[in-house]
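Continuing the series of single-chain predictions for the mutant panel. This is the parent chain; the variants come on the following pages.
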Amino acid sequence: MENEFKPGDIVQLKSGGPPMTVSEVPKGSATRYICVWFKGASKEQAGFEADSLKPYVAPVKA
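Parent structure:
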């Protein structure tokens, strides 16, 4: 399986949410990308399946 994202890529959940940075890619039989983001001053981290993520596209200012 080739990884869709690499460390440092900015992603977002397909359902929305904050932009997140990929910190670890799946290795071996693992299937989750480890992502980090900030909620205020707190650093958050969680694992997400590739099919729940999309590349982040910044909103266009009008």
